[in-house]
Amino acid sequence: MPQDLQAAGNPIRLDHSGHFVADAEAARAELEALGFTVTPYSAQVQPDPVTGEPRLTGTGNICVMLDKGYLEFLVHTADTPIGLEFLAALERRAGLHLSAFAVVDADAQHAALRAAGIEMRPVAHFERELATETGMETAAFSVARLAAGTMPEGRVQFLVHHNAAALWQPRWTGHANGAHALTAIIASAPDPAETAARFARCLGRPAQPFGNGLRIALDRGALEILPEAEAEALVGAAVEPGRSAFVGLRLSMSDPAKLSDRPGARWIGASLALPFGPALGAGTWVLDPL
After folding, report:
1. Nearest alpha-carbon partner for 252 in 168, 177, 187, 186
2. In this structure, what DSSP letter does residue 117 have?
3. Phi and psi at residue 197, in whole multiples of 5°?
4. pLDDT tens-place string over residues 220-249
5. From CA 151, how far away is CA 99, in angstroms rounded?
6. How far apart are CA 252 and CA 231, in angstroms?
7. Source organism's superkingdom (predicted)?
8. 61 Cβ partners below 8 Å, 6+ apart?
9. What is the pLDDT of residues 88-125, one digit of tens each?
10. Which helix (H) or strand (E) holds 104?
């Protein structure tokens, strides 16, 4: 495990999850029906390396902004390398295909991961234009991403927000359902120890026993890794049998009981498990009371 990823001055926080979906408006409708406030659609761009003009990255998104972390729902916009990767993943299934972790310095994180022998793409710089209550602002990000195919779960990336206020606008962080924070991404694994070892190497944090599975605690949030059979029981269906996959999101919420009448909802102790709707793909919400 790379020691420089464990340094006290290098906090790593769960920043956001990423759903790959076919239809942003269908996803919006499902989210709003659950009481989430959803941001307007925004296409992601990056500067052209020759002209400097903005060009489509290949995906656009809508988001659910929480007090801590956020949920991203991505759609295809162009047949760029990222756009084509997106389509290949979406062809397998709609659902969770991305985990993103906030760091202090994307370049330093990139260097540390490469030094640990982890294959990386070049650091990328993305932008998207967002309307605020005082006018348009640019939300900019520096992103260190593992090479395509490195993680069977999908895209794993580390990022720095350069204008967080443009994203976390107060008008988007209040939710009728009382959602507060993204506290964990849940993975299904045919071999939990193998999956945990890969992520522990990237995150520089140890995996600890968590029920029948394993959990990697971060400076904020966590990754939970469940044996495949247990994940199937949680979701109500196998998501990608034989392949490690992201299958659920754990959120803290003021009162999960507000959603207990939704189809498929069931209590697991004090937490409410609720399947994703069809537009979001196979998977489940796990809603914990504050």
Report:
1. 177
2. T
3. -65, -40
4. 999 999 999 999 999 999 999 999 999 999
5. 11
6. 20
7. Bacteria
8. 24, 41, 42, 44, 72, 73, 74, 75, 128
9. 999 999 999 999 999 999 999 999 999 999 999 999 98
10. none
pTM above 0.90, yes or no: yes
Give the distance from CA 13 to its chain's centroid: 12
Residues 6+ apart with CB under 8 A from 50: none
Beta-strand runs (E) in the chain: 13-20, 42-47, 54-65, 70-76, 95-102, 124-132, 135-145, 155-161, 179-189, 207-210, 213-217, 222-227, 245-253, 266-268, 271-275, 284-289
Q: What would you report as the CA-atom Rg of the chain, rounded to the nearest whole angstrom?
A: 18
The position carrying tokens 């009481």 is 35
Could you give the strand order of the β-sheet that contains 266-268, starting from the edge strand earlier in sequence? 207-210, 213-217, 222-227, 179-189, 245-253, 284-289, 271-275, 266-268
Sequence letter at residue 34: L
Q: Is residue 113 helix, strand or coil? A: helix
Taking the C-alpha atoms of residue 19 and residue 276, their distance in angstroms, rounded to an integer, is: 11
Question: Which CATH homologous superfamily contains domain 3-173?
Answer: 2,3-Dihydroxybiphenyl 1,2-Dioxygenase, domain 1 (3.10.180.10)
DSSP class of residue 109 equals H
> Residue 28 has which token pair?
């919006």
Within the chain, which residue ranges are assigned CATH 3.10.180.10? 3-173, 179-289
Q: Are β-strands 284-289 and 245-253 bridged in parallel, bridged antiparallel, or unpaired?
A: parallel
The CATH homologous superfamily to which domain 179-289 belongs is: 2,3-Dihydroxybiphenyl 1,2-Dioxygenase, domain 1 (3.10.180.10)
- d(CA 11, CA 158) in angstroms, rounded, equals 11
CA 12 to chain centroid:
14
How far apart CA 76 and CA 20 sit, in angstroms, is: 9
Helix and strand element counts for the chain (H, E): 7, 16
